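Annex B. Sample input.
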Amino acid sequence: MGERMEVVILCGGKGERLREYTTTVPKPAVTIGSKPIIWHIMMMYAHAGFLDFTLCLGYKGEVIRQFFADEGAEELTRDGDATLLAYGDLTVRLVDTGQNTMTGGRLKRIERWIEGDAFLATYGDCVSSIDLRALLDHHYEARRLATVTVVKPPPRFGVLTLKDDAVVSFMEKHRDNEPWINGGFFAFDRRVFDYLAGDETLLELDPMARLAATGELTGFVHEGFWQCMDTLPDALKLNSLWEAGDRPWAHWEHPPRTDREESYVHP
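Annex B, continued. Sample output.
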């Protein structure tokens, strides 16, 4: 039997662009339907067989703790700033990683909780139809320290052509013309912790740049559904999709494939 795979979710940011909600709750606690987006993200991973989670709490982390208490999660152990819960078939470790810690710093703070040679990570504000097992398989096959999912964001603006002050053409911006961006679903070798200096480290800047420069970063292309919850329109869109039954990220609502029914264990 091999190792079980830890999923780390960054839940500590303040969500400044979603202030309509985040004055009272952290962004991962903003709901889609009746459940917070963090629950949706965890269900995505759980459906793929990843059942062990570490949540990096920060801003209003007590709201996330209260969610699991209200859901009837059982406290198993407590160790300083970390609490391990049993939540159905899942284990969930809630770790206070500081109010103002940057993304790389939050990862660095949970290093001691990662027991295996590799782990998965994501942000607490994005849902997708991504194949998470294929992401991890790609990571192992690439033999790099880090894998980042790359996506093309939904186009936001129409494109027009001006001649003097006359608009001579107008068209909706096509997704194919968008640049590839960080899709926020990662797979890491644990040696990536050596690239993280401390609380001030922003994962998306120096660590990723250094990994790319040394040939240790690979991209996993995802061309299906992907939607972050950065702003009020994003939140409204996700709730509208949920209410309409158009839920491409909600794989758990469909019968599992027979090869995906068991939890993922790396050989």
